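Researcher: Before we compare anything, I want clean individual predictions. No alignment, no superposition, just each chain on its own. First chain goes here; please echo the sequence and then give the C-alpha cells.
Model: Echoing the first chain and its structure:
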Amino acid sequence: MSVAVAAAPSRWNSATLWVVRGLLALAFATAGAAKLYGVPMLVAEFEHIGLGQWFRYFTGSLELLGAVLILVPPVVAFGGLLLSCVMIGATITHLFLIGGSPVPALVLLTLSAIVAYAKRSQFGLLASLP
C-alpha cells in the first residue's frame, strides 16, 4: 500500500511539470513569433531599448528556441535555463530602460527556473560526456 501512495505524488509532479512546460512553450513561442513577425508595438519597444532591430530578432529567436527545447525531454533543463536567462534580461530591461511592470517577466523567470531546477540532473549528463 505504501508503494502506491509514494508513486502518486511523483505522477502528479510529473504531470504538473508537463503542464508548466506546455504553458511556457506556448507563451514563449507566441512572444518569439510576435517579435520575429514585427508586431509594431514590439518594434517600437525594441527601438526604445536602443540596440537596434537585430536585438528583436535575436530575442525572438532565443524565445522560440527555448520554447522548443523545453518540450524535448532530453534537453528540458537547457531550455529552462535559456528562458530564465532571457527573462533576467527582460526584467532588467523593464526595470531600467523601458518601464512598465516587470511582474510578467518575473513570473516567466520563476516558472522557467523551476523547470530547469526540476530537471537539473540533465546538467550532470553534460559533465559525463567525453
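Researcher: Okay. Second chain, same rules.
Model: Second chain and its structure:
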Amino acid sequence: MAPERPRGADAKELAVEAPVASRSVATSAPPKAGSGQLYAALDLGTNSCRMLIAQPRGSQFQVVDSFSKTVQLGAGLEASGRLSRASMGRTIQALRICQKKIEQHGVGRFRLVATEACRRARNGKEFMRQVRRETGLNVEVITAEEEARLAVISCAPLVSARTEQLLIVDIGGGSTELVWIDISSVAPEDRSRAIMRLHRGFAAQPEGGARVVDWISVPLGVATLKDQFQDVEDDGARFALMSWFFEENLSSFSPYNAAQPRDGFQIIGTSGTVTTVAASHLGLRRYDRTKVDGLQMTSDQIDLVIRDYLSLGPEGRRTDPRIGRDRHTLIMSGAAILQALMRIWPTDRLSVADRGLREGLLYAQMSADGVLDDGPYL
C-alpha cells in the first residue's frame, strides 16, 4: 500500500469524529466538571491491545487502571491480506478483559478504536462485528488522519516553548504516522496549547495558529516492516535494508526534501520502540515511565543503543531485560525506522513521549464534555 495523506479539497472537509460509546455499557449525559466520572480509551493496534481508564483532574487526568497485552493481531497480514483465526482469538481474549474492567469500574464514557491492521485486512469489518457479538464492545476503525491527530495532541505537553518547526512521529505496529507542524507564528507560551487545538482537524486552523505543513501515514510499522525482510538471514544486512526501505517510502513527504535549520526544530517520538530505546539508554532493568516520558536523547546516544542491539544479535536481544520478551522480535525494525528519521532531519535530539492514541482519546472526550479546568483545547 502507498503512504496515505489528504489531497485537495477532501482534506479540508475532514472533521473530528464525536466519541462513540459501546452499547454494552450505558452512557450518561456529559458530566459536570468535577463530577469524578471515569473515562476509558482503548487502542487496538497491529501488535498490541492497550487501554487506559482515567478520571479528570484539573487540566489533566489521573490514570485509575490500565491494560496492555501483545496480541499480534497483524501476524501474517502482510502475506495473506487477512487477519488470522489465531490472532483474532488472542485479541478477543484481551478485549474480554478490557470489557470486564470497564464494567467493574463503572466507566460511563469511553471510546475504543482500531488502527492499521483492521484498516488493511480484507476481513477487518467482519472481525469488528465478531468483536461486538462476543464481547459487547463497539470498536471502531479510525482513519489514518485521526490516528495521526490523536498522537499529535497527546504529545502537545512536550512541545518546547523554543520550538518553531515540529515533527511528531508515531511508530506503530502496522504503520508510522509523521506530522510536520509550523508553530513559528504562535507565541512561545501558547505553542503547546496551539498543538492541542489540532484536534479540530489538520486543515481547519485559525490564522496565527499551528499549521500542519504536511502529514503522511506510511504503511510500515514494527510488525509490517519486519515481515517485509524476514527472509534476510544476516542480522546487520536485514537492519540496513529495513532502514533504507523505510526512507524510500518517505520520498513524497514534502518536508523530506526541504532544507530546515537546526534551531527551533524538535522531533517528538511516541512508540514502544522509542521508549524501549530510551529505557536501554538509561540502563533500566525495570521500566519506569517517570524517567522515560519527556527524556531527550541525542542522535549519538540513539546510535549507541542501536549498535548495542546489533552486537547482541537475535538471541542476546531475546534475553536482554531492557528490551523485554514481548518486544525483542520487533525492536530492530523499529530501530531501523528511528535511525532513518534521525538521519534525514536536521536535529541531533529526540524528545521521548510515553503517550499516544489512548491519551489523545482521553483528552478529546474530556474536552468535549468540558470537564478539564482551563482545558487545553480552549
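Researcher: What stands out in the second chain?
Model: The chain has 14 helices and eleven strands. Additionally, Confidence is low (pLDDT under 50) at residues 6-34.
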